[in-house]
Every structure is written in C-alpha cells, then in structure tokens.
Amino acid sequence: MFLGSVIVVCVLCGAAAMENGTSCAEVRQVFVMRGIGAAHLVPDTWTEGKDSNLCPSSQTCCSKSMESKYEEAGRKDLKNLLQGADSYLKTLISTSATKFRGNIYSKCLLQEQPSTFSDA
What we know:
One of its GO terms (cellular component) is cell surface. Cell surface proteoglycan. The structure is a single chain. By secondary structure, this protein is mainly alpha-helical. Helix content is 69%, strand content 0%. The protein contains three helices and no strands. It has helices at residues 2-19, 25-33, 64-119. The model has no long low-confidence stretch (mean pLDDT 78).
C-alpha cells in the first residue's frame, strides 16, 4: 500500500511538472496541505530525478528530502491503519470469546437442570 502511494505521488510530481511547464506549485500545495512537509522542500521547478530512489524520472517535482518525508508519512499511515485493524480484531475476538463462554455456561446449566428436578 505504501509503495503504491509513493508511486502515485511520483507520477503526480512528474505530471504536474510537465503540465505546468516547469512549475512545481501544485505539488508544493498538496505536499504542505497533507502535512507531509514544509514548502521549502519542494523545488520551484522540475528537476532530474536520476539520484532519486523513489521518483527516478527525467522531469520531477520530487526532491531527495521530499522522498524521506513521503516515506515517513507512508510509514505513519500504515502504522495507523494497522493499529486500527488491530483494535477491531481485538474487540471482535473479545466479543466472540464472551459469547462463546456464555453459550458454554448456558449449556452446562441446561445439562445440570434435569438432574436437579429429578432429585426433588
């Protein structure tokens, strides 16, 4: 999931640079609005991404420092997603265990009940 997000961002960085001539203004706006990093990390105009690990392109608005911020944001998003799923699963297991214990207890009571009535 994280890698997919990074790839989409890299494609958008390159597409925005080509669409606007050489301006990276739209990329800067999204980068800052999403809280990924500061505006000064985004280049003013497209650059070559040949030294880039995640956004290797001849025209990109993604800098090396932006890559590390995107990685950080991706890790944080993934961690939050996993914690949410973990919390849901814990609740589901706990609820199921409680219901199971209740069913077992009810069956035990029903099995003991006839013998109690026959003794009286």
